[in-house]
Structures are given as structure tokens and as C-alpha cells.
């Protein structure tokens, strides 16, 4: 029976959490401000090993409940939420994100208008903490989550803003663990099974820019290790990977038009900082790719979701 027809929520929101109680409270406040009435949705916070459970923060919001998932990784945390969700549509939001007031209403309206669609990815806008973003923030403003690109080119949506009909999980299966990029792997698996991800441009979520180069390096440690683990380990594939790593190191100049034309940046200083970030991160990404190819022990960096 349909959950809405049975008096249950129409959409369940699953939010994995790890050591971000203050940001989680802001995220929950944005869900409390939804135009969708609170009896039409539920929120499941899945803590994945925090040093302190965010019980006090979650208690402020009666529509939310807190559960635990001991297996490390956002994939297992989301899977726990899926298992407990009561609605036929399950939305995913990161604990540091801020949902637009019409986020949930727009997702439901889009699914209703597109009954053949099983997977939606909403837009994600990146914002800096203050009016003068640092180098890391300027970089992330341009190159942070670009949902339109991931959907069109790579056939998946980042789980910072994703919504899925339950029958898709029934057909495709759940998210993978730490060894892979779980949102990419799942989205491409769903696409191959006949459930492509569609963009819902009106379903907006705001995501804070990473505010340090160390945070960006940690992010790319995971990305590179995941991408390497998902590739076939053939001589040809490894040679392509190495060539790509070398090309990335020399690619920053090609990014100048994108930086100059970005509407996420304001003024010359921010654009110069974004370019400095590109030079630094492309060099780091290139080195990490070569480490993956020639030093397999570096792959352990991908498993540091809640162990660092």
C-alpha cells in the first residue's frame, strides 16, 4: 500500500552524520522551514560513529529521529536510513547542507509530473563562510559539487541532493561501502539497469565550500582512491590512468576561461585565488593518482571516513 494513502509520510529524508552537530542543527532547521507540511515527511539522522551523539540537536525537531550505524561509511549509513524509511520516495541530504524551503515540495512535484522517473538529482549551490573567500573556498565555489555535470557526463548525482523511488532500490540494490565512490557506483549501476538520473533544477540545496586546502586534499584522497579501485587493473587501463595523471598536472591554464566566466566568483582577487587553488589541487591530484598506480598501500586513505 502507498505510504501516503496509509497515512504515513510521502517522502523520507535520510541524513548521514559524523561529528558535525552544529551544522546538523542548521540542516535540520532548514528542514523545519519546508513549505511541505511536517506530517508529509520524516527525517532519519544516521550517526556513523561520532565522538558525541547529536541527540540534543535532533531532539529540537520532532519530525526527526536519530539512529546509529556502526559500519563506517556514508553508504552503510544511508542504507540504514533506507531500511527504516516509511515513505515510497527517499531523499538524501548531507548533514552540512541547507535545503531550500521548497526542496521537498519540488521533489514530490517533479516525481508526480514524471511518473517514469525513478531517480532525481537536485541542484547544489556552494557558498563561502564570509564575503572574502580564501583560496580553498574560491576553488570550491567553482569546482565544488556540479550536479548538472555529474548527471550529464557521469550518469549519477551526488547524494548531497538525491531522491529515489523505493522500487529503484528494490531493483538495483543499496549503496556500496568505503571501497568505492558510493554515489557514483550506485548511480551508474542504476543507469545501467534502466533507471537514469534526471536533473530537478528547482530542488535546491546549499553546501558550504571547503574552507582549507587540507580539507580539499582529504576529499581528493578519497576520490582518487575510489576512482582507482573502480578501474580494471589491466596494462592498458593503468597506462591511460598514468597518462591522465600527467595531463592533469599541466591542465590549470586550460581552466582560466572557466574561472574568468564563473558567476560564483566576484572580482579579480577571488579569480586569482581560484586559479591558485586549481594549480595546487591539480598538482596534488596528479601526484595522488601516480601514488595509486605505483604505491598500492596509499589506497588505505579511502577508508578514513570515521577513523581519522
Radius of gyration: 20 Å
Number of strands: 8
CATH architecture of the largest domain: Alpha-Beta Complex
What's the mean pLDDT score? 93
Q: Going by CATH, what is the homologous superfamily of the largest domain?
A: Spore Coat Polysaccharide Biosynthesis Protein SpsA, Chain A
Along the chain, the helix and strand elements come as EHEHEHEEHEHHEHHEHHHH
Instruction: Tell me about the largest β-sheet.
Output: 8 strands, mixed
Q: CATH topology of the largest domain, anyone?
A: Spore Coat Polysaccharide Biosynthesis Protein SpsA, Chain A
Shape: globular
Coarse structural class:
alpha/beta
Q: What quaternary form is this?
A: single chain
Beta-strand level of the residues, as a percent range?
15-25%
Structural overview:
It is built from 12 helices and 8 strands. It is an alpha/beta fold and 308 residues long. It has helices at 21-32, 55-59, 74-84, 103-113, 135-143, 147-154, 166-172, 182-192, 213-229, 235-249, 256-261, 267-294; strands at 11-17, 41-47, 64-68, 89-93, 98-99, 119-127, 161-165, 197-208. The protein folds into 2 domains: 11-208, Spore Coat Polysaccharide Biosynthesis Protein SpsA, Chain A; 213-303, no CATH class.
Summarize the structure.
It contains twelve helices and eight strands. It is of the alpha/beta class and 308 residues long. It folds into two domains: 198 residues, Spore Coat Polysaccharide Biosynthesis Protein SpsA, Chain A (Alpha-Beta Complex), CATH 3.90.550; 91 residues, no CATH class.
Amino acid at each position: 500500500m502507498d505510504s501516503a494513502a496509509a497515512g504515513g509520510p510521502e517522502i523520507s529524508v535520510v541524513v548521514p552524520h559524523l561529528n558535525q552537530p552544529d551544522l546538523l542543527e542548521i540542516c535540520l532547521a532548514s528542514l523545519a522551514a519546508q513549505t511541505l507540511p511536517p506530517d508529509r515527511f520524516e527525517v532519519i539522522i544516521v550517526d556513523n560513529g561520532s565522538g558525541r551523539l547529536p541527540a540534543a540537536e535532533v531532539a529540537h525537531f520532532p519530525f526527526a529521529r536519530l539512529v546509529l550505524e556502526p559500519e563506517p561509511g556514508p553508504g552503510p549509513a544511508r542504507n540504514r536510513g533506507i531500511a527504516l524509511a516509511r515513505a515510497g520516495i527517499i531523499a538524501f541530504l548531507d548533514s552540512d547542507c541547507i535545503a531550500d524551503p521548497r526542496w521537498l515540495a519540488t521533489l514530490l512535484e517533479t516525481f508526480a509530473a514524471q511518473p517514469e522517473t525513478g531517480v532525481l538529482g537536485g541542484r547544489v549551490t556552494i557558498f563561502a563562510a564570509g564575503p572574502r573567500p580564501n583560496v580553498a573556498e574560491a576553488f570550491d565555489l567553482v569546482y565544488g559539487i556540479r550536479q548538472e555535470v555529474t548527471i550529464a557526463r557521469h550518469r549519477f548525482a551526488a547524494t548531497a541532493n538525491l531522491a529515489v523511488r523505493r522500487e529503484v532500490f528494490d531493483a538495483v540494490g543499496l549503496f556500496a561501502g568505503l571501497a568505492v565512490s558510493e554515489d557514483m557506483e550506485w548511480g551508474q549501476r542504476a543507469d545501467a539497469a534502466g533507471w537514469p538520473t534526471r536533473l530537478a533544477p528547482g530542488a535546491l540545496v546549499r553546501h558550504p565550500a571547503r574552507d582549507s586546502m587540507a580539507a580539499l586534499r582529504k576529499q581528493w584522497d578519497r576520490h582518487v582512491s575510489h576512482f582507482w579501485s573502480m578501474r580494471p587493473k589491466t596494462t592498458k587501463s593503468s597506462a591511460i590512468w598514468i597518462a591522465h595523471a600527467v595531463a592533469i598536472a599541466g591542465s590549470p591554464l586550460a581552466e582560466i576561461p572557466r574561472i574568468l566566466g564563473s558567476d560564483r566568483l566576484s572580482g579579480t582577487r577571488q579569480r586569482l585565488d581560484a586559479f591558485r587553488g586549481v594549480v595546487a589541487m591539480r598538482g596534488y591530484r596528479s601526484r595522488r593518482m601516480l601514488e595509486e598506480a605505483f604505491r598500492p598501500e596509499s589506497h588505505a586513505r579511502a577508508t578514513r571516513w570515521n577513523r581519522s
